Amino acid sequence: MTLRSVFRSWMDHYFSDEEAVILLVVLVLGFTVVILFGRMLAPFLIALVVAFLLQGPVSWMERRRMPRLLAVFVVFLAFIGVLLALAFILMPLIWNQLVGLVQEAPRMFASGQQLLDDLQARYPNLVTPDQMQNWIDVAGREVTQLGQRALTLSLASLGNVLTLIVYLILVPILVFFMLKDRDRLVGFTVSLLPQRRELMTRVWEEMDDQIANYVRGKFIEIIIVGSVAFFTFAYFGLPYTALLAVVVGFSVLVPYIGAAVTTLPVAAVAGFHFGLTDEFLYVLVAYGVLQALDGNVLSPILFSEAVNIHPVSIILAILFFGGIWGFWGVFFAIPLATLLKALVYAWPRGIKQRHRQEAAETPVES
């Protein structure tokens, strides 16, 4: 069997159905548009995520016989209230704490250098002077880069503020109309697809609830983990509580990696504030318990209906989609991995089932 015949057999097996070819074209066009015009379409994509998030409460109110338009208004007003609270209460607090942390970074660096000196004095065979100097040089470069980034951010603040204003205006408008005219928008999108779309319908039905549940579940997980971290750090009297709580909350977006990376700023702030004392150990133990409860209790409860994906696949999806789309690629890494898995499993079965169905419907000649 030649290579050409093998390739032709593979093409006939997977792409002999016109529906499979159309689905492939739709997926390629969709990914291409997002990759090329993702920054331009960012308000629309953010609004789409928020609409997925808010559709659950709207449907819950509809099931209790509330008119859809009234349910949309109630949920939308609650969303606007949360947005205003974030914009005028939480964001200024986080910004002030971030500025304070940047200003205090040189003192933290000096304290860390003193800690390394003490460590080298206590254990001269464990830590050599060259190793200690290398650590100090690396830390110094990181502190310098952090200061430069903070300066660049402050110089570009005007453009960031204008962009934020545009987002604060466009995103709520898009969210409102996506909720209000959901059926019309979905109907228009479906009308653009071909009439014969059993494979697309099967993949969409499998992914629709999972993506919506994933977005809502991640939002709930961020709120719960961030809130528990805030009260835990406040109980121990840790500085920069709101900033650290937000960092810990968003760390759940990156499974396995986020918790490990977030340990560094928590340990650094706790070590600088408490020193190597019992309070420092208590903070690390409490943080470890929080991450353990999130990974072993909260996540299985929130995502019990998600498709089981191997951890290696999740990490690869985070690296790949995060490298392409940044934050949103990391956020949607698991749903996109689930989509690819659904396509892999549905594609061959769908075509084989179609061939069997057509063979069964064909009358047998006598």
TrEMBL record:
Belongs to the autoinducer-2 exporter (AI-2E) (TC 2.A.86) family. InterPro entries: AI-2E-like. GO terms for cellular component: plasma membrane. It comes from Halomonas ventosae. The keyword Isomerase does not apply. The keyword Transmembrane applies. It is a multi-pass membrane protein. One of its GO terms (biological process) is transmembrane transport. It holds the Pfam family AI-2E_transport. Keywords: Cell membrane, Membrane, Transmembrane, Transmembrane helix, Transport. Its main location: membrane. The chain crosses the membrane at residues 20-38, 44-62, 69-95, 161-179, 219-238, 244-268, 280-302, 314-347. It is found in: Cell membrane. This is Putative permease.
